[in-house]
Amino acid sequence: MQNNEVYKDINEDLKWAQINKEVLKSMENPRKGYWISVAVCLFLIMFAVVAEVHQYQVGMGAANLNWPHMWDLYIATFIFWIGMSHAGTLLSAILHIMNADWRKPIYRFAEAMTTFSLMTAGLFPMIHLGRLWNMYWVLPYLTDRGIWPNFRSPLVWDAFAISTYLTSSALFLFIGMIPDLAICRDNARGWRKKLYTALSLGWRGDDRQWRNFRRTYLIMACFLIPLAVSVHSIVSSDFAMSIMPGWSVTSFPPYFVAGALYSGCAAIITLFILLRYYFRWEEYMTIAILEKTAKLTFAIAMVWTYLNLIEFASVWYGHSAADKEVLLAKFSGPYAPFFWAMIFCGSVVPFALAFEKLRRHLPTMMVVSIILNIGMWLERWMIVTPTLSLSYHPIAHDVMWPSWVQWFIVLGSFGWFGLLFLVFVKVFPAVSMYECKEMVLHRRELANKEISPVMANSPGGGASIGGGSPAPGVANKSPGVEGS
Amino acid sequence: MSLSNLIDDWSRYRKGREEGGFHDYEHMWGMSIDLNKCIGCNACSVACYAENNLAVVGKEKFEKGQGMHWLRIERYWDEPDLGEERTSEFQQHGASFLPMMCQQCNAATCEPVCPVAATYHTPDGLNAQVYNRCIGSRYCSNNCPYRLRYFNFWSYYENSWPAPLQMQLNPDISVRDKGVMEKCTFCVQRIRTVKDSASMENRKVRDGEVQTACSQTCPTGAIEFGDMLGMYDPETGVAETKVTKMWRKYQVELGKTKQNKQTPELRGYRVFEFLNTDPCVMYLDRVREV
């Protein structure tokens, strides 16, 4: 932390073999903190399973839901996890298309975060169903009952949107990983060897493969961006399409998307710091990249704040008495402490990201990113519950607090997500090796303004180079992979 | 699969649109409730419990808001107009009562949001709830501005009717288990029975032949129930019923978000009609000396 020279996106002197070695090392010996995290996640899941089994047995009353509080934390947390999934797409697809190469060392785990948070989110609509065992009725499967799902219902759109998004994001994660899986294959033994051999789909790293790979990856990225935006717009339709005051808000789709990117970016910062610690990845997850992510988060936080204000203003200047009442109740009603906590966490705390010193301080960033996500979770709760407690009909005004069953399941979802994520980073390379090499190569080119010595250095750098050449050409046929 | 049904329905719908005003209603059941006559005795609510096998959830769960009263008497106290001189906790004029059951909206907000189409509009003009199809997403209840849909939060039937009370259950209607949404059906089982016997005798359903449990029980006759198809579509040749006469008398029309009332004597109104739900229940405002 002496001078600015330290804060490079990535060290240009990294050798190909060194990158392979350090990334592959993550599959072998993480710090003890990793195992502690796994234990905590398992612990949380255990409690959630107990709660869910109880709720399944006795009914939704166990969650302390009532009339009119038909939805509560389950739906709020569902939106939270869907939102979390958007940052992966932002980093891997949007920034890919915008050629922001600082994303390269961190996009892989962000994308895994997308997939796993979707897998977590998908559980909640099921958990919250009164008759969980009939959940497949939402899908238009072939049936001799002769009945379709109701295509007018936003919940059906949800089911389609989320399953599409989950499929495509898992595919995108897998496709982007193929060259790295080949490196793993070349270095692995035992069951891992079999796994990576199957998954790397016979990747040899020749020109044709690279060309096809690039094209597929780009097409997937272009496909995923509108999909991600539409998914959260559709989730917001659950509310925006309804008639209830506080839900029927026209600005909800962009508001939800902004909130999604916001919480996702904050989660990336959290996981960034954790992974950097677990696997000693100081060379790849550099402070400079953290800073860039933090700046991005700050920008999105301001967009979110702006959209929040727009929502308040449009309600305030609108003439709907019920809408106004709900808004005032958010400001001063029984849920007001949570509402103001949300404003504080979501709109005030991000100003910490405006300071360079704080952006470069890992513990601060860890705390800030967690606070931001708590704020975003509160936001979702404050969307769902105040409206239910204060809708049109005065007889149905009611305040209700969630029971232990809801809290356990919500906390358990964090354990479930954490476990999936931790298993992933242990089994698969969570830093994209081939793209780090590209990045190093590119930075070297920028530094040296001279290509030929770099090319001379690049092949034969180690036992396996897994595609060190970004630009297909005659000069660099990346013989390393085939040679191994 | 029902693709052919889908296409058939669509072509029928398109054809009806061209001919102006599509509907396939055989009846359109509606109500008129005179709040002047309502004394808030709750007899209708009790009758509803008996007729429709409503679960008796007990004091604790009811206080928690997990009760299952399809028909509830809402009690409202007027805004204090005596100011500081108010001596009693209660208003001088007493409470006013509003019996609320499912309003069987023609543009029901609960219908489009159900993911599995468990709630839909029947040719009887009823907003039906299919218990067997319901998966309990509870979106319908959230989207009902009247909050008239009740959810089986627990498995009530095990404790609601301890033996031998289960013997008094109405065999014409099912007992619902946990995880299912339910609501007032305008006593659809009674409508069915009457329709069946009418078709056996090869005649139309007569006015007043169908009585819901609540209108049958009301000691002051505040609740009027009947077919309103004549109101909706005068060309069907459905005779004027008592209910249609009431609606016409108070100049309340279907399909409007605001009624044009010329005089204060026209007491008829529909609850939250500005939301464009087009409910089938008309209330007659209570008149009192102030």
Q: Could you write a compact summary of the structure shown?
A:
The complex is a heterodimer of chains A (484) and B (290). Chain A is mainly alpha-helical.
Structure description:
The complex is a heterodimer of chains A (484) and B (290). Chain A has 484 residues and is an all-alpha fold. Chain A has a single domain (14-483), classed as Formate dehydrogenase/DMSO reductase fold (Up-down Bundle). Helix content of chain A is 67%, strand content 0%. Chain A has helices at residues 16-24, 32-58, 73-84, 86-97, 107-121, 123-127, 154-187, 190-199, 207-240, 252-278, 287-317, 321-332, 336-348, 356-359, 362-389, 404-427, 433-448, 452-457, 479-483. The longest helix of chain A has 34 residues, at 154-187. Chain A is globular, with a radius of gyration of 24 Å. The model of chain A is unreliable at 453-484 (pLDDT under 50). Chain B is of the alpha+beta class and 290 residues long. Chain B has one domain (26-77, 93-284): Alpha-Beta Plaits, CATH 3.30.70. Chain B is built from ten helices and ten strands. In chain B, strand 4 (119-121) and strand 5 form a beta hairpin. Chain B is globular, with a radius of gyration of 20 Å. The N and C termini of chain B lie far apart (63 Å). The model of chain B has no long low-confidence stretch (mean pLDDT 85). At the A-B interface, helix 7 of A face strand 2, helix 5 and strand 6 of B.
Secondary structure layout:
The complex is a heterodimer of chains A (484) and B (290).
Chain A: H1 16-24, H2 32-58, H3 73-84, H4 86-97, H5 107-121, H6 123-127, H7 154-187, H8 190-199, H9 207-240, H10 252-278, H11 287-317, H12 321-332, H13 336-348, H14 356-359, H15 362-389, H16 404-427, H17 433-448, H18 452-457, H19 479-483
Helix pairs in contact in A: 2-16, 3-5, 3-10, 3-15, 4-5, 4-9, 4-10, 5-7, 5-16, 7-8, 7-9, 9-10, 10-11, 10-15, 12-13, 13-15
Chain B: H1 3-18, E1 29-34, H2 43-51, H3 59-63, E2 72-77, E3 95-100, H4 110-113, E4 119-121, E5 127-129, H5 139-142, E6 150-151, H6 157-160, E7 181-182, H7 188-200, H8 213-217, E8 223-227, H9 229-232, H10 242-249, E9 268-269, E10 281-284
Parallel strand pairs in B: 1-10
Antiparallel strand pairs in B: 1-8, 2-3, 4-5, 6-7, 9-10
